[in-house]
């Protein structure tokens, strides 16, 4: 039994430990835009959502599905942290950006500012922190693959030193054809569970 | 007018890169900025570019547009009155 909240958003699957009403196994609908469907089902109503790229949209939804229901009351916002990893950084926006930037003899065509804004991966943690009011430490790591140990070490240190009281952690890998997000929320008590690392890896890899 | 409204919505979606929105999902009379579509001052400049590119409307002082930047409908009415030629 897990001792932490978690969510999985993949192309073809949605799973949330605390919002099972949004779980989806991909077989009940032929909806090609399942992220938009999830946004509507969750009744988020955050106009800025539509300006975000797919990395940020899916990350914001993953955060909503993973944060404890009363986190704004139960935790000091200055002690809520966010750590996210992925493999392909912000390539989901970098490629369209580079495609739009080209020169002819007459003119230099520059990409739209709305596209440029999302050509850094840490915009994802910015969007989540602004929306959810997570005001503590935050990091974005680029990693070959989901790498739990260094993150758990960092979070344990931040808990032991009193810097954080809660931390949302995520793997957010998004490309034009696929989404693979896995987010979970840890507190100092989570580390009392001696199988914590095994349980997290089990949820991610299976 | 209906065609202009739909074209304008699609052009705004493309210009500002509004991921997941369709013209049908945008209300003609909802606010464009802050609540509603949630656009900001940088997006306003993008719309100014759009007005020039698609409708041949040159805007020297974007602040003069504030009364027309209320909703899709007010923007379309402004285009109808000031359109030089349909560029695209």
Automatic annotation (TrEMBL), chain A:
<protein>
    <recommendedName>
        <fullName>3-oxoacyl-ACP synthase</fullName>
    </recommendedName>
</protein>
Automatic annotation (TrEMBL), chain B:
<keyword id="KW-0596">Phosphopantetheine</keyword>
<feature type="domain" description="Carrier">
    <location>
        <begin position="3"/>
        <end position="83"/>
    </location>
</feature>
<dbReference type="InterPro" id="IPR006162">
    <property type="entry name" value="Ppantetheine_attach_site"/>
</dbReference>
<dbReference type="InterPro" id="IPR036736">
    <property type="entry name" value="ACP-like_sf"/>
</dbReference>
<keyword id="KW-0597">Phosphoprotein</keyword>
<protein>
    <submittedName>
        <fullName>Acyl carrier protein</fullName>
    </submittedName>
</protein>
<dbReference type="Pfam" id="PF00550">
    <property type="entry name" value="PP-binding"/>
</dbReference>
<dbReference type="InterPro" id="IPR009081">
    <property type="entry name" value="PP-bd_ACP"/>
</dbReference>
